[in-house]
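Q: Structure tokens for this one, please.
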Amino acid sequence: MKKHRLKAAKRQLLIDAIATAHPPESTKPATRRPRAVSRPDASSELPPELLDLLLLLPPLLTTPIPLTAESTTLLLTNPPLSSLPSLIPQLSLLVASNLQHSAVHLARLASPNTNPSYVHRAIPTLSTHVASQQRALFSQSSALCSSRLATAAALTRLLALHATARTACARALEAKHGGVARSLELRAAAVSAGARRGAAEAGAALWAARADVYAPEAVAALGSYARHLRDGKARLGEAIRGLSAELKAYGVGVEGSEGDKGKERTMREMARVYRDMEKQIEDIKADLARLGKA
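A: Here is the predicted structure, written as tokens:
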């Protein structure tokens, strides 16, 4: 299994290197690279057959359906695959350069504090470093899962304790105030219902008493009496206005000089004397009536 795994890993690395291999860009200025990375010369030009081969090989290597014998023969007898033996050295150099470049990037990521000039020395230890990182990651993932499970279990216990505490609190409140509160609520509801019933009965009794006391004839008589009172009030108002006008003719109630006030006092005194004389006349008539009876 280890041999098969290594073989599959090498095959996958080669496929990825071929798929990501690209010709050097001659238009860009040359940059300083580590000495361990041997890239093709930027000034060299790749033949068109090699470029076609780089485009054709990745889908052929990764196709899920195997090719038939006729298709394989057709591909191998036509360019660019027919020129594969002559292009293998250049293809190998390009793939090796790509693999080395990727290995240098991995080494730089694995050892960020290493001097860039010595990064290529860490390439042989990449597998060990990656394996140790994977083991550390697996152990940390296992610890994280264990912590999550422990946290979930603790949270479940905490929620159960909260539920128990709330149940106990509710039971204590019900035991202390539940019965009394329900009794008071029922009493208040009964008193409210009795009050509403009494109000309804009082209203019905009032309408019944009105129907008994105020017969239709009495209601008509009271209406006539009310109209008579309104008419009398109107006549009284007219009489008051007429008398006020007469008093004003005598100077009573009119704002003016001191003579007008003297007239008003004289008229008031005459009215008082007249009332006294009427009272004396009534007393004399009453004495005469008693003498006549005697």
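A few notes: The chain has a mean pLDDT of 76. Residues 250-294 form one domain.
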